[in-house]
């Protein structure tokens, strides 16, 4: 799976070299030559395919990289938790300390070897994935792209923003999510929800599916998370790059 990296760096030559090298090693790099451009790109991708990592230069033409790091950590949703590697030509110990205190995950002094940057990026991804796995195991959290289901807290979040569901709707969504990738008939879904308090619409799973789609789909009329399998039932998409 290609990992997307945002590189905020005013040195065009360096950015081009890094983009080429990382591209040969499974990363797709988008370059921003200024702080403003970098923050704009983060906003553009906040509701779509998010960046996996950010490479941030400490000295930018329009802002201090430390301030940019602080602004990123103040962003809403998942953007704020994106791992950041800071680059600097100054190499001052205090810059490193301040950068890490403001939320940077790693620090690399210029000049550097692209393969060292690659190693650090991979290490950050491994650390992030291990943390996510441990957290999910402890809290029973299911992640599907931009969608998150916390089975213990009984919450649903899309792009980090909580979406409100009734108890019945949450149970229906959880039943499908726990069997993601498997087609479930209406009868199987009713069996999974047996014992739930009935309401006027419980005779129709289709009605509840429609309500769920209005909450978790970007376009309920063209659903990509809860998919209808004609003549068979519904399937919750297992792989969601949405």
Q: Could you provide a short overview of the structure?
A:
This protein has 242 residues and is an alpha/beta fold. It contains 8 helices and 12 strands.
Descriptive terms for the model:
about 240 residues, alpha/beta, Rossmann fold, Arc Repressor Mutant, subunit A, five-stranded parallel beta sheet, about 40% helix
Describe the structure.
This protein has 242 residues and is an alpha/beta fold. The chain has two domains: 3-139, Rossmann fold, CATH 3.40.50; 142-236, Winged helix-like DNA-binding domain superfamily/Winged helix DNA-binding domain (Arc Repressor Mutant, subunit A). It has eight helices and twelve strands. A five-stranded parallel β-sheet has the order 2-1-3-4-5, with helices on both faces. A four-stranded antiparallel β-sheet has the order 6-7-8-9. Helix 3 (65-73) links the parallel strand 3 (53-57) and strand 4. Mean pLDDT is 85; it is low at 195-202.
> Segments where pLDDT lies below 50 for 5+ residues?
195-202
The number of helical runs is 8
Strand content: 15-25%
Strand order of the largest sheet: 2-1-3-4-5
**Major sheet: size, sense and barrel closure?**
5 strands, parallel
- In terms of quaternary structure, the protein is single chain
Helix content, binned percent: 25-40%
List SSEs in N-to-C order: EHEHEHEHEHEEEEHEHHEE
Structural class: alpha/beta
Task: Calculate the terminal CA-CA distance, rounded to whole Å.
Answer: 14 Å
Q: What's the CATH class of the largest domain, please? A: Alpha Beta
């Amino acid at each position: 799976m290609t990992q997307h990296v945002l590189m905020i760096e005013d040195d065009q030559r360096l950015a081009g070299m890094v983009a080429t090298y990382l591209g040969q090693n499974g990363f797709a790099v988008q370059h921003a030559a200024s702080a403003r451009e970098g923050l704009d790109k983060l906003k553009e991708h906040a509701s779509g395919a998010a960046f996996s990592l950010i490479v941030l230069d400490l000295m930018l033409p329009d802002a201090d990289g430390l301030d940019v790091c602080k602004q990123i950590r103040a962003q809403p949703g998942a953007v704020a938790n994106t791992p950041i590697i800071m680059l600097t030509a100054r190499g001052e110990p205090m810059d490193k300390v301040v950068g890490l205190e403001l939320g940077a995950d790693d620090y690399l002094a210029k000049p550097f070897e692209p393969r060292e940057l690659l190693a650090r990026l991979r290490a950050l991804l491994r650390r992030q994935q291990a943390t996510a796995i441990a957290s999910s195991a402890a809290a029973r959290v299911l992640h599907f792209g931009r969608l998150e289901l916390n089975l213990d807290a009984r919450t649903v979040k899309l792009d980090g923003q909580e979406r409100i569901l009734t108890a019945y709707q949450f149970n229906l969504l959880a039943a499908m999510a726990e069997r993601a990738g498997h087609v479930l008939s209406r009868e199987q879904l009713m069996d999974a929800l047996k014992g739930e308090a009935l309401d006027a619409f419980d005779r129709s799973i289709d009605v509840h599916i429609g309500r769920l789609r209005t909450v978790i789909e970007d376009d309920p009329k063209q659903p990509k998370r809860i998919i209808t399998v004609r003549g068979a039932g519904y399937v919750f998409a297992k792989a969601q790059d949405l």
